[in-house]
Amino acid sequence: MTDQTRIPVPDHIAQAAHMDAEAYARTVESAARDPQGFWRGVGERLDWSRPFTEVKDVSFDRQDFRIRWFADGELNASVNCIDRHLPDRADQTAILFEGDDPSVDGRMTYAELHAEVCRMANVLKDLGAKKGDRITLYMPMIPLAAVAMLACARIGAVHSVVFGGFSPDSLGGRIEDCGSTIVITADEGKRGGKRIPLKANVDKALEKVAVDKVLMIRWTGADVPLTEGRDVVYEDVREAASTECAPEPMNAEDPLFILYTSGSTGKPKGVLHTTGGYLAWAAYTHELVFDYKPGDIYWCTADVGWVTGHSYIVYGPLANGATTLVFEGVPTWPDAGRCWQVVDKHKVNIFYTAPTALRALMREGDDWVTNSDRSSLRLLGSVGEPINPEAWLWYHRVVGDGRCPVVDTWWQTETGGILISPLPGVTELKPGSATKPLPGVMPAIVTNEGDILQGAAEGPLCITESWPGQMRTVYGDHNRFIETYFTTFPGKYFTGDGARRDADGYYWITGRIDDVLNVSGHRLGTAEIESALVSHPAVSEAAVVGYPHDIKGQGVWAYVTLKADQEPSEDLRKALVTHVRAEIGPIASPDVIQWAPGLPKTRSGKIMRRILRKIAENETSALGDTSTLADPSVVDDLVRNRPG
Ligand code: WTA
Description:
Residues 24-81 form the Acetyl-coenzyme A synthetase N-terminal domain. By secondary structure, the chain is α/β, with parallel strands linked by helices. 31% of the residues lie in helices and 23% in strands. It contains 21 helices and 30 strands. An eight-stranded mixed β-sheet has the order 12-11-8-6-7-14-15-23, with helices on both faces. It has a seven-stranded mixed β-sheet with strand order 5-4-17-16-18-19-20, with helices on both faces. Bound molecules: 5'-O-[(S)-ethoxy(hydroxy)phosphoryl]adenosine.
């Protein structure tokens, strides 16, 4: 049905937009005819202390692999996000803050942001930080999180932000992997009325891995222990730090940040983004996709611990001189009307959130929405997972009063910024479709052999040409980078997603086709959860698959084989859930644990996940051929004892 539903571009949007249909056609055409010229324009959005002359220098071929953009240019990301706006908008709000507690809010102008970033940069230098050092951030969603990122950028240190919901073990693993010398954190975070013991988690993580310094921000004022010689309270040193700090000139290809994300195998990988290409792409896409115009109030509800927070709370909006709202809370607290109260309070024009939040709010009924005014809203965005047409239509009809285009933006941590999305002034919308590639982006749907399909097609989604925001490597493991993304389909970037392209050339992302789950818009590797489960003394083997979940999109279904001397019990089930939460974090909690006396395996010992997925999806009549299994009877047992 939804292939047929179309929502035209509203006239008033098309007339005022940066790009209308004609400009889009012209841009796409020029990007194809003269790619270097097109990309030069994207790079020239930034202020360069040494202008680039080289534009694109890329080869996806194994022999000769390289991804380099604007490679002889020099710039500093914090200068582009702050200093260059000072002549015109020193007193404009850069960061609007809305606390978890609805009575708490605040704002920081570009001049204030400049002073704060310089202060923290100077503090970091005093703590010994130098260009190229890695600094881990484990922060609440407060303006100082953005300040800390930009302070790292100012001195050329590489930040690695770890989401505050990850466990001490996950945090420790990430600190160790990139060899951070400093951790920046807060005493506690607040979310949905609850406290998150950030500093205590850091202390626990640092029992297993050492850093030189911990810089702690006082946020809730909780009484937390400090380690002499290692821990520094930011508020104790802030006043004395100068509000001027000369920016470190960075080569375009110098690293800006590392962000860990889950893959289909092994531990999370450190996705590395560099300075010039990443920032140019974040800025370009933020302006184009959200049709950002000076004066707009822009709100992305993500956390800075995810790439969406990096590109579309901090770097993209600030590079464009926007007012970006930082929200500490959650959409459902104190009640399900919170988002719309915040929209009205701050007169938000552009609102960007995840389908999982929309589904949770939709369930609470329309009154929470319709009790608010929302007339400031002009544009709505969605990110993180496929949005089901029902949620899309609700977002458009109820939240946007049928007035506001919905941009369903497809991208990944690896892509740095949006690659496939409607443009508000250009694209007729189809609910559930991310629609068309942005100018310069070259998606391809391929066969399993890697042949590019034309016209209407379905299959693995690749990108055949580089774009500036593309990740450059997996930190410390360049081979893994090439293996993961450029080997399945040689010469092309493989996204890990499947997609369908309809007869109008619209893309419909069908979801991950590798062993990566997308739970409430958070990426989780099945291998990570399995390794957490088998690290419990009662467990002998585990296999994890995703299954459709009304709110989360996907839920976590774990098949667990216990050691011979163990008996299944409700207590043990709870203990395993607690164990996974402690090992990875609450977002990885199994929704279902099914006791499995045996797992379906091939004769060579490979677990047949396809069958496990079907059982979890309750499609037990479509299990396919099980006769090649080492022991086909285990499948009957799993089907018979399927919970729920
Ligand atoms: C999924 C988040 C469908 C996809 C920015 C991708 C989406 C993964 C969409 C990346 C969308 C993201 N429609 N699926 N609009 N946006 N995804 O790295 O499977 O946290 O590969 O980046 O989320 O998740 P990541």
